[in-house]
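tool_call: predict_structure(chain=1)
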Amino acid sequence: MVKFKQSREKTVTNQEMQAIYEKIKTPHKVGAVMKWENDYTDSPTVFKKDGMFYMYFIAISKDCHVSGYETHLAKSADLLHWEYVGPIFRRNNENHWDSKQCAAYAAFPDIAFEGTCELQKVNNSYYISYLAGNSDGYEPDPLYMGLAKSSDPTVPNKFIKFPEPILRPDDADSREEEKATLYKSFLFEDRLDITGFQYVNAYNAKGADLHERILLAVSNDAEHWERYGDRAVIDVRKADPRNHIGGDPQIVLIDDIYVMFFFRYCEGEPAYNTFACSRDLINWTIWDGRPLIESEYEWEKSHAHKTWFVHYNGINYHFYCAVNHDSNERFIALAVSEQLSL
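tool_result:
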C-alpha cells in the first residue's frame, strides 16, 4: 500500500461546485439507446476512434441465477443511434477466476472535459479493465479486477486477458472496505501529477459490512497496481448511515479540478447519479444539490444510475442505467444538455 501523498491543495468552494454543476448538467432525457428484450444492458463506457463513437456495455440474462456479466460493443455516428458490433468478452466453462463474470470498461480515456473523447494508447496498446468472477449470478462474491489489452479497441474478440487479476479482495494490502468484492474500475492518467504516479485506478468495492465505497490504486506502468491510501476516498455512509452504495466512478478534469461522477443508493430510495470534486484526489466535496440523474419517469422509476459522461461539440451526453422492476427492465438510457430526439 502506498501512503496518500500529503497535499495542501485548497478545497473546492461552494461557488465552484455550483459552477461545475451548471457546466455538466443534462436536464433533457432522450430515453433508451441500448435495450435488449431478453437481457439487461448496463454500465456503458463510450469513446471515439477514427470519427466514430463506440460503446462497451454489459449484458446479463434476465434469468440472472444461471447467468453472469458479459461485455459487448456497439458503434454510433451521433451518440444517439447505436448499432451492435459484437461481443468483447463471453462467459465460458473453463473454470478460471474470470470464466463466469467478465464486465469490461474502457481504460485510459482522455479525461479533459473538452478533450478528444478518445482512448489513450499506453505501452503501445489499448486497455480495458474488467470485473471478473467464476460464479453464476448477479454480482456474486468474490469479484476480482482483471485487465486486458488490444491493438485495436474497436474489434470484437481481439483483447488479450492478463493471466491473473491486477487486484483481489484478499490481497495482503486490501483495505477493510474492499475485503468482500471489487466492482467497477476507472483507469486514467494522473495528468496533474497529484499522486506522484502516472496512472490512477478509481473503483468501488464492498467490505464485510456489505456497503460500497470508492477507493484508489496507483501505477507507473498501467499493469501493476498498488493500493493508494489506507481508506476509501468516497464513503457516503459518513453523511447518512442509510446510504449503502457510493459506486461506479468516472473522473473528468475541468481546469485544475477533478470531477468524479458516481451513483448513490440509500435504503428504500431509487439510486441516482451525482458528483464530487477534488484538487488532490483524496479530499472530495460531494455535491449536495439536485442529482445529475434521478428517477423521473415510469421506465426508470426503480433506479437511474451508473454514469458515463461525454462532452462533445458543446453538448453534454450522460449515459446511464435505467431500471424499472415492475416491467423487469434494465437498459442504457441517455440524458443531454440540449433538447435532442432519437
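agent: The longest strand covers residues 243-254. Proceeding to next step.
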